[in-house]
Specification:
Number of helices: 11
CATH architecture: 3-Layer(aba) Sandwich
Strand order of the largest sheet: 1-2-3-5-4-6-7-10-11-12-13
CATH topology: Rossmann fold
CATH class: Alpha Beta
Oligomer: single chain
Strand content: 15-25%
């Protein structure tokens, strides 16, 4: 047996014994499952020892480590790692030389989902519209009457994951990438732990400069489960675009449902027709990610936003509030909130990778650029 084969066999046996699974990705990117230990701070299971699901997309000769965090309502691999032409942004980052750690916080993917198994823990209208007669026969009330998570619990979990990555790689800092609510997750984390963050990439960020700094205790009354419909998500995407060619809609339509079914097999069995439903956690909101915390971010930051994005609010205010960081904004022509699946997805991936590696895109480290659907940058924007 060749030495390399012996090493791969030994590593595979080690992963099998320690609960870390390996698989082979197309393009020779090896993907490993890591279960990161953590003591939960989520009120529903506070104090319990849990394991956070992380998938490592391994570069052959790493130039650095990047942690990519789940969006909302999508798990990280459904958002960033779909099968399809240039839709797997995790593999694209690994091909650029990064060790990529795709991380789900509580409520997503294979990370813990406390109080999320009872379909009764959903609003009455969701039960009548989506869950009756399967899995529910009649309306019912769940036993847990509050939302599940907050940015504060997300930050605790991201910190455990970042420490795990730093310990494995020996890197002093990591790059962070987030989309939508994921941008609030990594942005707020960078404000709390500037010593652990090299650079930030915020994709279609959600931001409220006037959000409360404190998380209420106890959490607000509500529901621990949000039930999402793949078809409604795709319809929202189509309606948001005003361009004729806005991306890989057919490819995403074909890839998204099986990805979510794999990542949420329980909800995949809910509904009249199995397959279109998936769960995300009920959340406190944007508490803690505001003007004060944005002002504490010191890592160089890239913001990428679509020109037709109806969801990413207050991006200009976010740029202004990142007063301690060098920040660069790219506005993508014809882009919506779902721009990582759209026509400019490969140029966006290239820009994110370049910024994480060098802190520049198109020779610029700050200010604003406009990107057309072919990836051409206009510095006069």
């Amino acid at each position: 047996m060749r030495n390399g084969a012996r090493v791969r066999l030994a590593v595979a046996l080690l992963f099998a014994l320690t609960g870390i699974a390996t698989s082979q990705e197309s393009g020779a990117i090896e993907v490993e499952r890591h279960d990161v230990p953590h003591v939960s701070t989520v009120p529903a299971n506070r104090g319990e020892r849990v394991e956070l699901s992380v998938h490592r997309y391994a570069a052959s000769e790493p130039i650095g480590a990047v942690v990519v965090v789940s969006s909302d309502p999508l798990p990280v691999e459904a958002a960033f790692g779909l099968d399809g032409p240039e839709l797997d942004h995790l593999a694209l980052l690994a091909e650029r030389g990064f060790d990529v750690y795709a991380a789900d916080v509580t409520g997503y993917g294979f990370s813990p989902r406390p109080q999320m198994h009872d379909a009764c823990s959903t609003p009455g209208e969701v039960q009548s519209d989506l869950l009756i007669p399967h899995p529910l026969y009649i309306p019912c009330e769940g036993g847990y009457g509050r939302v599940l998570t907050s940015l504060a619990t997300d930050w605790d979990e991201i910190d455990a994951i970042v420490d795990y990555v730093i310990d494995r790689t020996g890197d002093a800092r990591v790059g962070l990438v987030g989309w939508g609510v994921g941008a609030a997750r990594v942005g707020g984390y960078a404000a709390l732990h500037p010593d652990k963050v090299e650079r930030l990439a915020l994709i279609a960020p959600t931001y409220d400069p006037d959000a409360p700094s404190e998380v209420p205790s106890p959490y607000p009354e509500g529901f621990p489960i949000v039930v999402n419909d793949v078809d409604a998500l795709l319809s929202d995407w189509r309606e948001m675009s005003t361009c004729d060619d806005f991306g890989a809609f057919d490819e995403v339509s074909a890839a998204l449902r099986p990805s979510l079914n794999r990542l949420d097999p329980l909800a995949a069995q809910w509904g009249l027709v199995p397959g279109p439903l998936f769960r995300s956690p009920g959340r406190v909101g944007q508490n803690g990610w505001n003007r004060e915390s944005a002002g504490r971010v010191s890592a160089p930051t890239l913001i990428v936003v679509g020109e037709n994005d109806a969801r990413s609010t207050n991006v200009t205010a976010l740029m202004d509030d990142l007063s301690a960081a060098v920040s660069l904004r790219i506005d993508v022509a014809c882009g919506t909130y779902w721009l990582l699946w759209e026509a400019a997805r490969r140029p966006i991936a290239d820009a994110v990778g370049r910024f994480l590696a060098t802190g520049e895109v198109g020779g610029r480290s700050e200010g604003a650029l406009r990107m057309d659907v072919e990836g051409t940058l206009d510095p006069s924007f």
